């Protein structure tokens, strides 16, 4: 124990001269004084808080006091902008009225479109009274047959009338009905016969049906014998 104490004393003695002869200079901190601001730019936190019951509690009423306690003044609040209520009410009204209008329009009967007037079409061929009488005699037989008028390539000018008996009309045959008598026209000959007049001629030599066709010129488009024509 004595040895340790002596060692510590020797060490302390040796350390003191080192501190006295040290080359490093002690650092000195300069002191500067600062002034506190007299006026603060930011307002205190409780500046905008109203004096409500939290900050200042309402005073309790005294005994035998009938008057109500004084109310603390409240800061006026800015008026709220009211939403346009009429527009909201108007939109449902219009939407509700729209189905009603559609229902009433659906219940109303639609105006019927005016139908085009059908004009009577002119007959493709006319019959003279004598031709009607002769055709009626042919139809009054025990086995009545229809007469079909057609055109065939024959004669000097190229076309000649052709008559034949048929039991029923064809798919595209034109039917001419006059005074209760029917005559058929071949669909291939309709262009050449349309507008003609059918007549029945009887003389001492023969009896036959003749046609007066306005589509041909007798001096140019009909042969001299009168058996053929050209359209």
Automatic annotation (TrEMBL):
Biased composition, class Basic residues, residue ranges: 110-124
UniProt-recorded Gene Ontology molecular function terms: 2 iron, 2 sulfur cluster binding
Any Gene Ontology CC annotation: mitochondrion
Gene3D superfamilies: HesB-like domain
Domain Core: start-end pairs: 125-219
Compositional bias annotation for Pro residues: 68-81
Positions with biased composition (Polar residues): 35-44
Stretch list, region Disordered: 35-124
Single Gene Ontology BP annotation: iron-sulfur cluster assembly
Protein origin, superkingdom: Eukaryota
SUPFAM superfamilies: HesB-like domain
Physiological role: Involved in the assembly of mitochondrial and cytoplasmic iron-sulfur proteins. Probably involved in the binding of an intermediate of Fe/S cluster assembly.
Listed PANTHER family: IRON-SULFUR CLUSTER ASSEMBLY 1 HOMOLOG, MITOCHONDRIAL (PTHR10072:SF41), IRON-SULFUR CLUSTER ASSEMBLY PROTEIN (PTHR10072)
UniProt family annotation: Belongs to the HesB/IscA family.
Descriptive protein name: Iron-sulfur assembly protein 1
């Amino acid at each position: 124990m004595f040895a340790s104490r002596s060692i510590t004393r020797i060490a302390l003695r040796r350390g003191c001269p080192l501190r006295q002869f040290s080359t490093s200079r002690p650092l000195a901190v300069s002191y500067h004084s600062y002034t506190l601001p007299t006026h603060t730019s930011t307002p205190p936190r409780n500046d905008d808080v109203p004096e409500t019951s939290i900050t200042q509690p309402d005073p309790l009423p005294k005994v035998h006091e009938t008057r109500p306690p004084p109310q603390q003044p409240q800061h006026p609040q800015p008026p709220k902008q009211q939403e346009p209520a009429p527009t909201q009410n108007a939109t449902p009204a219009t939407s509700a009225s729209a189905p009603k209008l559609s229902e009433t329009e659906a219940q109303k009967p639609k105006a019927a479109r005016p139908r085009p007037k059908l004009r009577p079409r002119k007959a493709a061929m006319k019959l003279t009274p004598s031709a009607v009488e002769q055709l009626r005699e042919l139809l009054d037989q025990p086995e009545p047959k229809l007469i079909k008028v057609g055109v065939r390539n024959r004669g000097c000018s190229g076309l000649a009338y052709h008559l034949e008996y048929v039991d029923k009309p064809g798919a595209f045959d034109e039917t001419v009905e006059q005074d209760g008598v029917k005559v058929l026209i071949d669909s291939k000959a309709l262009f050449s016969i349309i507008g003609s007049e059918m007549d029945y001629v009887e003389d001492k030599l023969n009896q036959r049906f003749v046609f007066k066709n306005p589509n041909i010129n007798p001096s140019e488009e009909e042969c001299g014998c009168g058996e053929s024509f050209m359209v």
